[in-house]
Amino acid sequence: MMIRTFRKCLFSRWVCLILLAGGIMIGYGVAWAEPPRLGAVRVAAVINPTVADFVVAQLTEANREQRAAFLLELDTPGGLDSAMRSLIQGILGSEIPVIVYVHPGGARAASAGALITLAADFAVMSPGTNIGAAHPVALGLGGEQSETMRAKVVEDAVAYIRSIARQRDRDVDAAEAMVRESRSFSAEEALDRGLVDLLAADTAELLAKLDGATYERRGESRLLRSAGGSLLLARMGWRQQVLNAISQPTVAYLLLMLGLLGIFFEISQPGAIFPGAVGAIALLLAFFAFQTLPVNYVGVLFILLALVLFLLEVAVTSYGLLTVGGIVAMTFGSLMLGEYFPPFLRLSLSLIAGTVAVFSGLFLIIVFFVFRTQKRPFFSGAEGMVGKLGEALTDIHQEGQVFVHGESWRAFSALPVARGETVVVVRVDDCLRLEVRPVSSPSGQDSSA
């Protein structure tokens, strides 16, 4: 009896263990069957600090949520060196694998985009795309660069791209050629030269081809599971979109000019308030954008000098010389402002010419109306009383009363005035008394004229 009971208990335990093992296997099967989730962003713009911060923030979030990988779809003419390095640091420091995909057909990863692509764990290109032309452009340097300085900039860029290429096991010589010789490679050439890992026509093909690929982390090889994965595409919020928009050189330049116009109008016509408020906001936005751009601040000073000259034109009779000086200063400032911008960021000459013409015209119109207003006679206040005719209500010598402009005023006169006599106002003293003269007197006739 005891043996039978023991066998039943033993049998029950085996059944429990088998059920538990089956449950665990089913659980692993469900987990394995769940499609991988990849973080993703799409960048089709210049690499500026706003774009770099957005991408790094999304990459950090993907790492925190332990997604299978992070996909950066790229189409860029290049960008600023500081923004590029910030983005590359985020890629190299990522725990999850980073895929940079130059897409769609016709896209490019030029200049800074080439280095970002090489820094990825997996570099992929669509057919019909290109990569390269990463020769550094002098940014934010006063005056022309010497040969020594140019050599330093190039050598720094070469060392940086060689270091990235070695770390990602890519063709170091081809990567160096992109910097020294401004070489650019088609997608097929980049694959043949070992600059990228594979070609893919779309994201579905990319995920299928990368499934099972390995990457290195902390000295160990890890496996990427991407087949059938879902992309969690993140987009910029409205704040980031606004900051990215005003970081464009054309927008920043127009904001600067709009700000100066608003400030000029407010100073020349105090009390308008609205133009001054708009001008101040536009100037602050422009200065924010200039922090992210390699601006020549001598150009900014020339444009501010133009504002000062336009303001002086209102207060000083220069017969138009100050206005001409302001237009010349604005033109030189606009040309110098973007002197150190990369070629794809530079302001076009047609934009500069049109903007200077329009804003100079607006300044001239405002100056014209200010002059016309200043030349009008006074119709109110103490100045408006001078030259008005009135009638003596009493005899006036030292003190008396006159009726002027529909009101009774205290008055005094250096000449005797008889009651009922017509008088002209000479001035208004600090006690709001009117000094008058008889119209019949020679000085009174002169005053009334």
How would you explain this protein's 3D organization?
The chain has three domains: 33-239, 2-enoyl-CoA Hydratase, Chain A, domain 1, CATH 3.90.226.10; 248-375, no CATH class; 381-448, OB fold (Dihydrolipoamide Acetyltransferase, E2P). The protein contains 16 helices and 16 strands. It has helices spanning 2-33, 49-64, 81-92, 112-119, 147-167, 172-180, 187-192, 203-210, 238-246, 249-268, 274-291, 297-315, 321-337, 349-375, 381-385, 442-448; strands at 37-43, 69-74, 98-102, 108-110, 122-125, 130-132, 184-186, 198-199, 214-217, 220-223, 230-234, 389-392, 400-404, 407-412, 422-428, 434-438. A hairpin with a 2-residue loop joins strand 9 (214-217) and strand 10 (220-223).
Name the descriptors.
449 residues; alpha/beta; 2-enoyl-CoA Hydratase, Chain A, domain 1; OB fold (Dihydrolipoamide Acetyltransferase, E2P); six-stranded parallel β-sheet; five-stranded mixed β-barrel; 16 helices; elongated
